[in-house]
Design brief:
The chain has helices at residues 2-12, 49-69, 79-100, 107-131, 138-159, 167-199, and strands at residues 34-36, 42-44. By secondary structure, it is mostly helical.
Length: 211
């Protein structure tokens, strides 16, 4: 949730309007004002780049912690679940790396972070659909894998520079946002389940059962 809020704050600070179609997400974290020629020409100047990069790091840390602690409350006890959680944690590490290394400061490390997010993270999302516990609603299970397939396809199109009318930034968001929307949905589900248990007078799950 904090990522989307800070995204709006950071883009609103631009003197020249920020475009979800023409600009990469990473443009919000660039530390310097400059004309960028690749992969599409655009002028980047993000006054709130530090705030955005802090959001990347916070998102990554929370994703790693979430993958580690959700345990039996969300996942099956299987090898697929273990691999899924590892890949989602890799995506979290990618967000941390992207925040610590803006693309105009260390392009290689930033690209590695993006690869972890949109390759490892989205593969993990596909596998997660088969790794969620049986008590998780079926629409969430198959919807998770569908989000992952959509994101991987969009990532391939983004790399090939086939934007299908969405623009460079638009296609990147189709590749990156499904993971974030899934995490948001799972988080909301967790809050609702916890509230229902408390309302019914059932004790919250013991931490030892969480992973």
């Amino acid at each position: 949730m904090q990522f989307f809020v800070i995204h709006v704050i950071a883009e609103s600070a631009w003197a020249r309007p920020y475009s979800w179609a023409r600009n990469n997400i990473s443009d919000l974290g660039n530390a310097h004002c400059a004309l960028q020629s690749e992969p599409e020409p655009r002028y980047i100047c993000s006054p709130e780049h530090s705030l955005m990069n802090g959001s990347f790091v916070a998102l990554g840390v929370l994703l790693v912690v979430g993958a580690a602690l959700t345990g039996g409350s969300l996942w099956r006890r299987s090898r697929t679940a273990a691999v899924s959680r590892l890949l989602l944690a890799c995506a979290g590490a990618g967000f941390v790396l992207a925040g610590l290394a803006p693309s105009d400061v260390d392009e290689n490390q930033h690209a590695l972070g993006a690869l972890l997010i949109m390759a490892a993270g989205n593969i993990g999302l596909v596998l997660t659909g088969f790794a969620l516990a049986e008590h998780v609603a079926a629409p969430l299970r198959w919807g998770t894998s569908l989000l992952g397939v959509t994101a991987i396809t969009a990532f391939g199109l983004f790399l090939a520079q086939h934007y299908l009318g969405l623009g460079m930034g638009g296609m990147e968001r189709v590749a990156a946002f499904p993971l974030l929307l899934w995490v948001l949905a799972v988080g909301i589900r967790g809050f609702i389940r916890r509230a229902d248990r408390l309302h019914q007078g059932v004790p919250a799950e013991h931490p030892s059962h969480m992973g």
